[in-house]
Amino acid sequence: HTINTWLKPMALCIHHNKEKKRSHARALTRLGAGGDGLCLGSPDYGDALAKAILFFEGQRSGRLPANQRARWRGNSALADGRPENVNLTGGYYDAGDNVKFGFPMAFTVTLLSWSAIEYRGDVAAAGQLGNLRAAIHWGADFLLRAHTSPTTLYTQVGDGNADHGCWERPEDMDTPRTLYKITGDSPGSEAAGEAAAALAAAYLVLKEDGDKAFASRLLAASKSVLELANNYRGSFQSSCPFYCSYSGFQDELLWASAWLYRATKDGKYLNFLRDNQGSSNPVNEFSWDNKQVGAQMLATQEYLKGRRELARYKTNLDSFVCALMPDSGNTQIRTTRGALLFTRDSVNMQYTTTAALVLSIYSKTLQSWGVSDGVRCSAASFSPDQIASFAASQVDYILGSNPMGMSYMVGFGGAFPRRIHHRAASIPSIKVLSRRVPCNEGFSSWLPTSDPNPNVHVGAIVGGPDENDQFGDNRGDSAHSEPATYINAAFVGACAAAMGQSQKPASPTLASY
């Protein structure tokens, strides 16, 4: 059985399935082993990787360092946390707004760290390991300071409704910097669990840096905040209506335990995974809300090392692959005619990039353990190379191999979004227009204009096209034109994987990291 393919503008490989020639495409693939393919070229993955990481400097909050590369940004939100005598400066603005949401920010840090762990060699070969570590450090440092006591974790800075009611640069903002936190009396196990995962994953990356004391603090905080999540169980509601958790908190507890087992090898975390695997269920997406497949991926790596008691996680991970792979017989997430995984018509790229990351890591894991038969679905089997190739096709779509012939990453290629839904990018830099631009002026003068944004937010990946592969480049269309930190964070690893696949270098394992 072979996967259907579609020859796109700028397509990377040509492959014909004679029996399904007229079916243009639910399933572009650059084809792995066993496929007849003619490669025509690849995007500049190294350039895309560098820009994807640079994006995070444009999202920084707080006092910017001397080596800041996104020079159009300035210092902002320097008093965050002051009403409660805590230092909550720094961290990342979530997307095109000026709020710091700790729950998705932690997911962003976890994804960036996972990318650095799995693809260290590829990132280093592109000359980006230092920049990636800096991006991880910037977010992890905020999470560390947000955990102010064993039973306290600050989860948000800024009033989401007030912020969204204004269109102003972060350097100018005068909306309330309201503080939200979880405690033993007001729990939020999802947010605490994700923070634990992020801190443990960041520890694994940053422990190799010179500041071993900082790394040790990350690990200690990770253990502490997981205890907060597990001992004071309750669903996270304080961020609603913006980041309400719909999947519950069990997925974050599994995810965090898997990361802490990887970081510490402490058997109590492995036992938690073993004893709670009944909470692991088949899913078809990986997102800031639902971490099931992330935990399944980490647990499957342990299963392949001989931890056979974790078999349920691998079964569920295989189901995830079958739910995404076209023509598997179990496909749940459709692909557009241009072969983009399309989960839902609102910031769809977040699901595309996370899927590409997990598929890439699973392919790499299967190859490293010599599991050549890959994943068996009801109507097809997919080799590790085929899984990796499908994941890479999603990266290629984002970088321009699509019906619009444009990149969905700002600053990459000749055609890319010019009017992204992003307050800081859409108003002239404070270094160019030094006077304050108030809330209402932003709405009247800068949000509605059809002019390109004055600041090119290099590396920003937007929400993406609609189900018909169409994109209007409309600043007011936040569902398609807004970037978000977790879109880019997953893309970093997926892009590094595609780059490694195109060059086939030896990839280091965690043990050698």
From TrEMBL:
<protein>
    <recommendedName>
        <fullName>Endoglucanase</fullName>
        <ecNumber>3.2.1.4</ecNumber>
    </recommendedName>
</protein>
<keyword id="KW-0136">Cellulose degradation</keyword>
<feature type="domain" description="Glycoside hydrolase family 9">
    <location>
        <begin position="45"/>
        <end position="495"/>
    </location>
</feature>
<keyword id="KW-0378">Hydrolase</keyword>
<keyword id="KW-0119">Carbohydrate metabolism</keyword>
<comment type="similarity">
    <text>Belongs to the glycosyl hydrolase 9 (cellulase E) family.</text>
</comment>
<dbReference type="GO" id="GO:0008810">
    <property type="term" value="F:cellulase activity"/>
</dbReference>
<dbReference type="Pfam" id="PF00759">
    <property type="entry name" value="Glyco_hydro_9"/>
</dbReference>
<dbReference type="InterPro" id="IPR018221">
    <property type="entry name" value="Glyco_hydro_9_His_AS"/>
</dbReference>
<keyword id="KW-0624">Polysaccharide degradation</keyword>
<dbReference type="GO" id="GO:0030245">
    <property type="term" value="P:cellulose catabolic process"/>
</dbReference>
<keyword id="KW-0326">Glycosidase</keyword>
<dbReference type="InterPro" id="IPR012341">
    <property type="entry name" value="6hp_glycosidase-like_sf"/>
</dbReference>
<dbReference type="InterPro" id="IPR001701">
    <property type="entry name" value="Glyco_hydro_9"/>
</dbReference>
<feature type="active site">
    <location>
        <position position="421"/>
    </location>
</feature>
<dbReference type="InterPro" id="IPR008928">
    <property type="entry name" value="6-hairpin_glycosidase_sf"/>
</dbReference>
